[in-house]
Amino acid sequence: MSRISTRFSWGLVYLFLFLGIQFCNSQEELRDRIDDKNGKEQDFWIYNDISKAKAIAIEQNKPLFVTFRCVPCEACRAFDAEVASGNQSIRKFALENFISVRQVEMKNVDLSLFEFDHDLNWAAMFIHPDGTVYARYGTQSVDGPDAYNSIGGLLNTMKRVLVLHQAYPGNKKYLVGKRRSHKPRYAMDLPGLKNAEKLEQLTTRSNCVHCHTIHDAAHLDAQAKGRFNQEMLWKYPLPDNLGFTIDPVLGNKIKTIELDSAAAKSGLEVRDEIKTINGQFITSIADVQWVLHQVPNAAAKIEVQTSDGKKQTISVSKGWKEYDVSWRGSMWSVSPRLRVWAPVLEPARRRALKISDPQTAFLVKWINRGAPGGQSAFKSGLRQGDIIVEFEGNPITGVTPQQFHTQIKLKYRIGDELPIAVLRQGKKIPLRVKLVE
Description:
- The structure is a single chain.
- The chain is an alpha+beta fold.
- The chain folds into 3 domains: 3-187, Glutaredoxin, CATH 3.40.30.10; 239-316, PDZ domain (Pdz3 Domain, Roll); 335-434, Pdz3 Domain (Roll), CATH 2.30.42.10.
- It contains 12 helices and 18 strands.
- The strands form 5 sheets. Strands 1-3-2-4-5 form a 5-stranded mixed beta sheet, sandwiched between helices. Strands 13, 15, 16, 17 and 18 form a 5-stranded antiparallel beta sheet that branches. A 4-stranded antiparallel beta sheet has the order 9-8-10-11.
- A hairpin with a 4-residue loop joins β10 (300-306) and β11 (311-316).
């Protein structure tokens, strides 16, 4: 080998080493900026770089295991820590069988490939290097993520994904529906994206493109164009809406069936193991939700095949997708927005005011007078320190603050007046708050 070619070869080595060091440094800097304690010093994660993971997955013919984590959010913090740095069974299985990615922002993520329930604080997707989606994992409801997500459940899904990967591409027809086109493909191009200039800057905890930002942008764009309707709210319904639940650890086995429900009438039975729904392989509750998400909120038929070969048809009627969406972070982007923070009044003060269960009350701690909604609430007479005790002429009973705000969004429109009553200095005062945004 000539000196010139030798120098050239060593030059390439130094260049790759330099780029590798620069990349590692940039990832370390990102971890520090967002204070991602669960993402540090883990040898089986590629940090926030799906493109790099995909190249390695192609070379090694392994599926990608991509977790999405909203680092600043409290929900799922413990589960995320266990997956990212605490559980040896996940670590060992992932190292042997997957190329694993810890994705902590949505800024440069291809939404046509990584489409999932973006209101989740933790989610996972399993993908073939060619872009075929194998599975989704991660579920949440008003019961919280801990009711569904577990190490055992995740590991069972990972094992099913490995079976799908080993049978691929012979099983491709059962996987086609697990992906659909998404336009625009990237979060920064979404027409309803707020504060785009700030979000384009270097990622920190205060300007991270959160997962729920994707849903927020869709809501805001539809509202700005006069196209918003409540059908957009019924995202990713649980199988509970059909009348059955799935064992969260087993992931595809029916745990309960509600009497006289659509599922019961179909002939499905407790302990049936679901193989496909509408022709798509099921590996988890999240996979069920993905299929149901594509079905309209109207009369429809949903085809279920169990592992023993049974084929059942679940018939649903208009409105079947509706459920309590108050837990969703993206609900705050839906109009009308009251712009008032009012948590539940603590029990001692409720007792002192002779407010007994199940009646509750909300203490107005903050009115956002920097926003039109807050300005209107103040102008309508609401004050910090008020205790909201009535809604539409009735005592507030059995609802959380999130459910209270959700009821406003479902029942009222901009321009309506919200009838409430508050306690102030021992007196009950009726108010009609003008909803303006």
